[in-house]
Amino acid sequence: MYLNAEYHRNQKHLCTKSKDIAIPFGQELVTFMKDLRREERILTTAKMVTWISSYHAGWLEDYMSKCTEKAAYNSLLRLLQRFAHRHGFVQRVPCVSKLRQGELDVIQAEFALAFWTKYELFKASEILNVDETAIDYDMPPHRTWAEVGKSSKVDTSEKHSDRLTAVLTIRADGYKLPVLFIVHGKPGGLIERNEIPLYPPGHHYVVQEDAWMDSTVWHHYLIEALKPQLEPDAPSVIIADNLRCHVSEASVETICTELCCDLAPLPENSTGTTQPLDVGAWAH
Question: How many CB atoms lie within 10 A of CB 270?
């Protein structure tokens, strides 16, 4: 699915940003919403209601008087949620960044300028972007039925999810390399001996105790998965984040001497803006 996925620049939208008749002050509301997010503050539907109450109290009173208070409030929330979607907002889990968006934009621009100044003569097929993405599975339910008055405790073995890590690489020309899956288990153990040989062909699989990238797995990926995909007799550059095993002396030496590549590490704490694979691979 990942290898066959295609990105279509001109995607159709379910709706357009047409004038919202139900909210006559819609443009003011959009400005408030964008200003709040520009300051990197949390924007909720409740805050939208509070803003309307402060600046358009008459409209709010008229809207709330059309039916019972509970029904009117629920209707208002749905209206504002549709309004937000229609104007390009989606609900996301808030995340904390060490840098503000303005600073990240500057870092992104500076990195892009430095990168293309150095590698402007490289062909698109010689520029490779690598990133790891953790995938959680076997997620435990958030709730359980319990008898009234009895405990809701569960065995600790049922409270933990499991995960694997997918190492994704894409060239600048859009070609996707086979994925390396890092599976949770003990190297040399039952999973590696009995399960991995049964996994679908066409990709690479390794076992690691935390199902995460380390220096051993990274070296394996460079030599066994990445090197065979490089164009022979042509220089290449690998873009990766600042994970310790990526930028270690051993890693740089392997990339330079055995792969004949350059390593272009991304600026620290900036993958949200400089690493498309950090979010884009799972956005569609």
Answer: 22
d(CA 46, CA 25): 17
Nearest to 238 by CA among 77, 230, 280: 230
- Quick: pLDDT tens for 183-232: 999 999 999 999 999 999 999 999 999 999 999 999 999 999 999 999 88
pLDDT in tens, 74-95: 999 999 999 999 999 988 766 5
Measure the CA–CA gap between 65 and 283, rounded to whole angstroms: 40
User: Looking at the structure, do residues 67 and 119 belong to the same domain, yes or no?
Assistant: no
CATH number of the domain bearing residue 256: 3.30.420.10
Range of the domain at 227: 101-138+161-274
Distance (Å, rounded) from C-alpha 164 to C-alpha 133? 9
Provide the token pair at 92: 């996301």
49 forms bridges with which residues in the sheet?
A: none
| HSE-CB of 86 using CA atoms within 13 angstroms | 19
Please report whether residue 281 resides in a domain. Answer: no
- Does the pLDDT at position 158 exceed 80? no
How are beta strands 236-240 and 127-137 bridged, if at all? parallel
What number of other Cβ atoms are within 10 A of residue 258's Cβ? 12
Burial of 25 (0-12, 13-18, 19+ CB in 10 A): middle
Report strand pairing: 180-184 vs 162-171: antiparallel
> Is 0.90 topped by the overall pTM?
no
Burial class from Cβ neighbours inside 10 Å (0-12, 13-18, 19+) for residue 234 reads: exposed
